């Protein structure tokens, strides 16, 4: 709860700074890099560009060379397994060289495709974002559990604090990207 308050306070301060001092400082804290690639692949996969930018900001802070402790790589933090599965879904030959996940275009393209598949599967934005963070099968389990979902389609509560913070953070960053960059 403290981290959520901290993020909310940060966002409110950024919006105040933007209103009083212009967008310069806020844009410095929330940069938008690879905007052309984000626009292209968000449009190709029918996603809001502000959402893609918010996912990238949350996942890697726009660092193309980011690598997580769990082996997720690049801007949108794709694991090798997810990358290979997406290549299979797209009927593309499997790329054995995982360094391509550090290429912004490759990472954004496959990350957007993965998000689009999750949105098609789960319909609800919060649920799809929870699946991007925690995994499809885990979210399916939450949807089947009446403690977390009333209708089997949307999550009324996300049981993992890390995933709950992740989803809230993306929502806040998405709003900021809409305002700061008119995405």
Could you explain how this protein is built, in words?
The structure is a single chain. The protein has 183 residues and is mainly α. The protein has one domain (34-181): Lysozyme. The chain is 63% helix and 0% strand. The relative contact order is 0.15. The model has no long low-confidence stretch (mean pLDDT 91).
CATH class: Mainly Alpha
What is the total tally of β strands?
A: 0
Order of helices and strands: HHHHHHHHH
Helicity level? 55-70%
Point out poorly predicted stretches: none
Give the overall average pLDDT. 91
Q: Examine the secondary-structure arrangement and name the CATH architecture.
A: Orthogonal Bundle
Q: Give the N-to-C terminal Cα separation.
A: 28 Å
**Helical/strand content category:** mainly alpha
Taking the sheet with the most strands, its summary is:
none
What characteristic shape results from the CA principal axes? Answer: globular
How many helical stretches?
Answer: 9
Percentage of β-strand residues: under 5%
CATH fold name: Lysozyme
Gyration radius from CA atoms, angstroms: 17 Å
Number of domains: 1
Helices, strands, pairings?
Blueprint lengths: L1 H20 L2 H6 L5 H10 L4 H12 L19 H10 L14 H19 L2 H10 L1 H8 L17 H21 L2
Helix pairs in contact: 1-9, 3-6, 4-9, 6-7, 7-8, 7-9
State the main characteristics.
183 residues; mainly alpha; Lysozyme; 9 helices; 0% strand
